[in-house]
Amino acid sequence: MTTRPSTAPPADPSARALYQSMSGLAGPLSSGEGAAPDFAAAPRAAAGREPSVLILGAGVGGLTAAYELSRLGYRCTVLEPQPRTGGRSRTARNGDELYEFDGEGDSPVLTHTCAFDQGLYLNLGPGRIPYHHRRVLKYCTDLKVPLEPYVMETTANVLHSAGHTPPGAPWRNRRIANDTRGHLAALLSATLTGDDEFTGRLRDLLRKFGELDEDGEYHGSTRSGYTEPLDVHAFPAPAPPLSLAELVASEFWKHRFYQPTDYLWQPTMFQPVGGMDKIVHALTEHITSRYDVTVELRAEVTSVDLTGDGVGIGYRIGGQELTASADYCVSNIPLPVLRQLTLTGFSAEFRHAMAAVPYAPTCKVGWQANRRFWEDDHNQIYGGISWTDHPITQFWYPSNDYFSDAGTLTGAYNFGAHAEEMGKLAPADRLRLARDGAAQLHREFLEKNTVPQELGVTIAWHKVPYQLGGWADWDPSDQDHETAYKQVLEPEGDGRFYVVGDQASPLPGWQEGAMMSAQYVVAQILGLLPRTAPETVRVPDAAALTQGL
Amino acid sequence: MTTRPSTAPPADPSARALYQSMSGLAGPLSSGEGAAPDFAAAPRAAAGREPSVLILGAGVGGLTAAYELSRLGYRCTVLEPQPRTGGRSRTARNGDELYEFDGEGDSPVLTHTCAFDQGLYLNLGPGRIPYHHRRVLKYCTDLKVPLEPYVMETTANVLHSAGHTPPGAPWRNRRIANDTRGHLAALLSATLTGDDEFTGRLRDLLRKFGELDEDGEYHGSTRSGYTEPLDVHAFPAPAPPLSLAELVASEFWKHRFYQPTDYLWQPTMFQPVGGMDKIVHALTEHITSRYDVTVELRAEVTSVDLTGDGVGIGYRIGGQELTASADYCVSNIPLPVLRQLTLTGFSAEFRHAMAAVPYAPTCKVGWQANRRFWEDDHNQIYGGISWTDHPITQFWYPSNDYFSDAGTLTGAYNFGAHAEEMGKLAPADRLRLARDGAAQLHREFLEKNTVPQELGVTIAWHKVPYQLGGWADWDPSDQDHETAYKQVLEPEGDGRFYVVGDQASPLPGWQEGAMMSAQYVVAQILGLLPRTAPETVRVPDAAALTQGL
């Protein structure tokens, strides 16, 4: 790796126009739709003068930067401290080792080894792809990563809340959703007094919206399910409705019930067949086999020096201390990890920015079930999420391998205080807690033959080495975050050092954000965009974007 | 085939209890869930005295009856007039010939031959399986028919209605759905005056339900999409909302917009991988290879005689007139076809019942598209249905082979007057009409290279030989139908002749109904249920159950 001066010209208006044309969209439905920019039309690096790039971290952002830059002739090297690529895009399979800091020493400890049966897997990080995340979908198409629908919500899913009547009995999604619609529509219908055309139509809309009777009253609907199984001589009769009083008293909407309504979780969502890490594996395979990119695993970066001509990196493989240098450095390292390195030549503003944003605590739990009981005649659940006021917060059913014998379940995915508390527990205790929560939704969790304790996996992302959290917890209401977010978008070292990842995107916690960030930085390095942060910068609302709050 | 007297005893209370235990369910979530009865526990026919059964029609109902009876030792023969099994469960593929009566002569004519590329297919009849249709799902599991999710609705789907502003511009599902919710919630919130706990919580629910601001007002939501594509420095801004006035003026709800809310169309739905006819093929293969059932294709039944000891059947293969007899006869023939046969020994009440119920007109159109333009950055549509006030009524996108090159689209599926009118057109004219309707949704239909005219297929089920309609159009408000439906459930000829099919079920137009009906008749033949119609019988509401009205 040699050091040479930056060769790309600063971005001018025509370069910017070229960049815009790469991501251009037109047509009547296009406003807001979004498209992945295509760098195929970008200028290749001049032969013999190909700039070198050191990419720190083989997460989604780092791999995307390596992919785009290497196919334009840039000489890329990726340094990754873990024995695998992907960062938080991790899928647990048999034999995978999970490490966390245990709060005792400085070194992470092996918490457990995944013991799922061969062929079973569970996504520990991102688990779904919205249809409008065009970058993720484009890379999957280009790299031939097969996708299948991810089901976010089925009306057979349940909600467990202590506010329910009878206490503790889970309610079906379809009853909550449709009985609520019915009652609200009836309340509104009762307030309408006019007999003009608009009011008449509005009444008609409400009847359809809430399935009201001719008088605008709600007395239940087969949308909520049937009273009893059909037979040839019977007629589908509506399940007796939950009353508005029960629904309101339960405060069901506080348990993310309406999250699937949000744009990020609307159908049709996708997941890669075989696990989310198929994407990072395809990226890794592509850049190493096709573009000769070196991906150094177990290479832990210890220092970054911007005081020379290029960027100087110190890193460690095994016990060996090594150095490297390049024209550019793209850092996919999470900010809480980056700020622990020996950083030389960085601005005070950047140091402040790294410290300003906390990373969100979040835990997941995964179970192997030896029988897909949730798909049986009692449960009839095929994918989607059940919600609960128990600390596990949510419970995912697999959107793959329906009707097969065994399967894996996401037995917890939580945030904030619940995640903090759960993360403090030893992994075995987390599994015990998660089993309690799951058993409130499904009594099958009382049968350890069905869901063996020793096959559970758990991760507290805020305790995972090289990650230290689920995502950058950007908060638009925090004044410090405004300065910090803008600073993170600002290259350091005279346009040589760039931060990428979902941490530098409006989509914290999403692979699309990591790819968007990488493409943005690639456009800067190529000289298609100015090497400064945009004048106006909006701080992402991490809570809304990860949890639908 | 020999004739012998009926050997099964009349149903007694213990037999009925056995039948109930076969379909039993228990547990907190089970009310109304439903399960497929399992005849494995039913008594087998005595060796050497196995009764014979003639099954008329190899539709879903006939094949199900053959499957259940043959595995209990009954000797079954199926007579099917068409060169394939499945009846309305038909999937069009390259080389398939479509016949219809053209109104000129007595014989059907070949309207066209499907010219799809090899590997492409389109379901011309049933196209989806609800998660609570336990019989269909159980047979698929037992017969190892692979299933994949059928996506009924995606928020990228569009609605075209002449009432829109600007006129003719399709609206996205997500805008209609969420802006309507927002406006309705705000209207209701504004009427709330109390400050008690209930009202406070109700206000909170409405804020979440409609995504209202702190004052209970609706100013748009990212649930409806973003104003513009995201970039690293931007924040997802809500698309400007459709106004309540626009929404109400459009009367969007009259175009089946809320059909996906109904229980029959709620997620998760399924479809067999490779085409709906995989189910009937698996049933056919199983009964012929494993239980030695003879399925005679091109065997057109001409007469049924109940005056002898058993049932006598006259039928025709090619020019040859043949006869057969059996202890029992199970007729899967649609009632409008059955009543055209020479029927001897049938009651006047049954003759009246056959004539009482009309069969519903319904048309479908299928297109091959050489490019999946609906999945591109402009459209972002992966499955689901777009709705229109054009006579095509609905427009289905494939829920299979996402991200591949070509695909098939359902370019029309209509009912009532639209279906009558469309059915009157010659197939080429139907395709021209359907293209006009599709082009209002997708301008890509103006490109004949993308959607070639000569690859279109169309079917008017009410003109199809041996079918004569989409389903029995049972109407609970018609007094004649009450008598007729009960009569159809009543065996003729002293318990020897039974009608099966979705026509004799509470689910007209659904395979689950056909299977339910077959299982009911099987239980009667086995002596597990009485051989009379139940005292109380409810007439199915075909319009609601097929069209979500």
Give me the secondary-structure category of chain A: alpha/beta
Tally of DSSP β-strands of chain A? 22
- Ranges of chain A where pLDDT stays below 50 over 5 or more residues in a row are 1-7, 26-30
Strand order of the largest sheet of chain A: 11-2-1-15-22
Q: What distance separates the N and C termini of chain A?
A: 47 Å
Specify the helix fraction band of chain A.
Answer: 25-40%
Fraction of residues in β-strands of chain A: 15-25%
Using a beta-carbon cutoff below 8 angstroms, give the protein chain pair with the largest interface and the number of residues from each chain. Answer: A-B, 106 and 106 residues
Assembly classification: homodimer
Report Rg of chain A. 26 Å
Global shape of chain A: globular
Discrete helix count of chain A: 14
